[in-house]
Structures are given as C-alpha cells and as structure tokens.
Amino acid sequence: MRFLLWLLLTASVLGNAYVNTFAGWTGGTQIAASVCTGVALLGSAVGLWLTRPRTEA
C-alpha cells in the first residue's frame, strides 16, 4: 500500500511539473489540471503520514 502511495506522490509531482511547464494549457484547463494533481499529491501525502511506522518511546 505504501508503495502505491509513493508512486502516486511521485506521479502527481511529475504531472504537476508537466502541466505547468510543457503542456501549454492556459486558463481553466491549467487550473483544473493543477487542482487535480494537487489533490492527488495531498491525498497521497496524508495517506503516507497516516500509515507511517510509529515508534514507542
């Protein structure tokens, strides 16, 4: 499961970089794509944080 979350995190970062630099989209299309990749990034980051190994002190 954590592997898939790391994969989603990496894909969303790369997707966001593509949308903002190479896609050539403007206006609403770029905003929608950036929002989608941002939601994927935040979702995977939260998933990784919730499934982190905890150590007992």
Structure description:
The mean pLDDT is 92. Helix content is 75%, strand content 0%. It is mainly α and 57 residues long.
Entry summary:
With 57 residues, this protein is mostly helical.
**Segments where pLDDT lies below 50 for 5+ residues?**
none
What is the percent of helical residues? over 70%
**What is the overall shape?**
elongated
Order of SSEs: HH
Tell me which oligomeric state these chains represent: single chain
* Spatial gap, N to C terminus: 26 Å
User: What fraction of residues sit in β-strands?
Assistant: under 5%
Keywords: Membrane, Transmembrane, Transmembrane helix
Organism: Streptomyces flavochromogenes
Protein name: DUF2929 family protein
Layout of helices and strands, plus pairs?
Layout: H1 2-21, H2 28-50
Observed structural traits:
single chain; 57 residues; mainly alpha; transmembrane helix; membrane
